[in-house]
Amino acid sequence: MFALVDCNNFYVSCERVFQPRYEGVPVVVLSNNDGCLISRSDEAKALGLKMGDAFHLVKPTLLEHSVKVFSSNYALYGDMSRRVVRVLCDFAPEVEVYSIDEAFLNLGGMRYWAPEGLEDYAGRIRETVKQHVGIPTAVGVAPTKVLAKMANRLARKRTEQERVWVLGNDAQRLEALERTAVEDIWGIGHRYARKLHEQNICTAAALAAKPRAWVRQHLGGVVGERLWYELHGQACLELEARLPDDEATLGPRATHRQSAACTRSFTRPIADEQKLREAVATFAARAAEKLRAEGLAAHLLTVLLGTDRFSPKPGPSTFSTTIALPSATNDTGQLTHYALGALKRLRRAGTCYTRAGVVCAGLEPEGRVQLGLFEAPEARQKSKQLMEALDTLNKRFGRAKVRYAAAGTKPLSWQGRCDYVSPQFTTNWEQLWRIGDDASRKV
Amino acid sequence: MTRITPFSISTDWAGLTLPLFACVVPAGFPSPADDHLDAPLNLHELLFAHPASTFLARVTGDSMNGAGIRHNDIIAVDRALEAADGCIVVAVLDGEHTVKRLRREGTQTWLEPENPRYPIIRLNEGSELIIFGVVTHVIHAFREKRSRVLGQVNNLRRRA
After folding, report:
1. A441 and B CB contact within 8 Å
2. C-beta atoms of A443 and B58 within 8 A
3. Would the CB atoms of B63 and A437 count as touching at under 8 Å?
4. Nearest by CB: B80 against A22, A132, A397
5. Do A334 and A376 contact (CB within 8 A), yes or no?
6. What region holds the UmuC domain (chain A) (predicted)?
7. What ipTM was predicted for this assembly?
8. Which domains does chain B have, with CATH numbers?
9. Mean pLDDT: which of A390-404, A426-440, B129-143 is highest?
10. A1-247: CATH class
11. Do A435 and B74 touch (CB under 8 A)?
12. Domain boundaries, chain A
């Protein structure tokens, strides 16, 4: 059996742990640069606020209902996520951290450990996470990952005290399939969903009722077939046991990382070449830092530029180019150099861009890098020392304090807003969570 | 046109000698402490019985002076522990966190400050007290820690 534990309105819940006065009132958290809504409390959802609503468009509604607004504070959310996972690790031998607010647990063979039955065990997981970390969760339990995800969706719709849903037998599984629309199945994208609706297949139950061969033919071959088996309760997708390293990092374990990326939306569109160069150099430096933090080096570098997604003009809104690096590297200087080269090719003069990003892929452990034909090993040693010095300085004096001039002279001049950010309560000594005496209570 | 000239490899390589060790072999007297090495003490082990559920907080105010929690001290708060009568806890009062001693007797619950200048906080019958966690340790600094860099900056400012 698998369990999917999903934190409810995770970012909002994190903020509330340290600021209980926002319990029971509508709260939203904004994306990077205060662009759009990415987390909403139940009260905010009840006001009709939607995921991804542009902040400047819903501002009047937010003001009218005195909705508390936060900019995103990933240092806090990352730390709270690590704590949740740590608690979950006590409940199952295998845990896959699927995203910052979701984790799969392998409950296989847990019969002796959970004599009270899976429903109660799932309830105990919820209560413990709530008690120990302060974050409310929903738990879905089922024989496969796809069904666990489905059960979790159903659990989330229940009232806050009872967000558990177990698909323990065939009747429960069939009921869940009936209640789930095809577009809500994990792994079915917009395109397939539309295709299925055209064929009058609207629920998961209808899809599961189709013959296996049909699904294989129409839903991407073996991938669709696997999905079909998963819907029928036969596990095809295994748990990818990705545990955070004990104290060190927040993210998935280094060897499982597929890419290191840094992308941002701009507060206002940028056409100016110099400003774009600064942004891309900053992102390259950040991505390089992520690589070094996990002892990885990248073979491939992708630069992305995005134009307004909502513009009436036809054509794609994201443009990207990928470069194969001469040898795998995590050196900020080299990655910046190639990223700027890619930017030069990618940018069209006069076009306004609203987003940019750098993605490093083709990762391998840095110690195992094959040297380039024309590369002197001493240069690599020197680069390593330089990067170590850079990281040490920035760790001590703050992110991007010391940087390549390509990233701009004014600190993050291109960067937008985070006007409503809360303190880094758990990860920064200067901003440590404070508990005070209310002066008015003094006699 | 490319000319390829083959050249032959000597066949008497079997006579090549290789050093026994390619690395330096230290031959000094082994440290007598080698057998007794232990990991250095880790303060975390002492402070964080439950790392996932322990939070640090800086206390402002003097309401808990009597319990040894002073203004600007850092406390460790563990959410995994059960708050029993007599524990020092972080509780939620009117949407704010506060540090007080928890008292429970029968159906009565109240919060006691450890400073006579503050009143005891009684809870209305039936109202539920939300407790964040139990205070397990206090870290009190006898000297202000000064950042070297900031100190120098301030000195320069003073001179200017």
Report:
1. yes
2. no
3. yes
4. A132
5. no
6. 2-189
7. 0.72
8. 50-139 (2.10.109.10)
9. B129-143
10. alpha beta
11. no
12. 1-247, 257-407
